[in-house]
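Researcher: Re-running this chain for the archive, since the previous output was lost when a drive failed. Same request as before.
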Amino acid sequence: MQDQDDKIIKNLYVLLIDTLNLMIFKSSNKIEEQNELIEFNLKELEGDYYTFINPINIEKLYSNNYVTSENRTQLLQLFNLINNINSEKWNTASFLSDREWKQIGILSNEVLLALNSKTN
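Model: Regenerated C-alpha cells:
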C-alpha cells in the first residue's frame, strides 16, 4: 500500500510541474503559433490548476517532502491568484499583457526554479 501511495504522490508532483509550466510564457518567432500555444495552455490550466495546485494536494506534497515550506506558501499564493482571475481574463491577450497574469508567470517560474534546484 505504501508503494502505491508513493507512486500517487510522485505522479502528483509530476503533474504539478506540468501545470506550473503552463503558466510560463515562452516566446515564439511565429505569433500565430505562440497564440495557439497560449490558448491551449489556458484551456489546460483552467482545469488543471484546481486539481494539481489545490491546498489539499499541496499539503500532501509538503508532508511527503516534495515541496518545502516556502514552496508550499508560494503554491498556495499561486492557487489564490489563479482562482481570483476574472473569467474575462482567461484569453491570450490578457495572458500576454495583464498584470495579474504576469505576476502568476513570475511566481510560477520562481517555484519551478526552486523545485528544479531541489531535484538537481
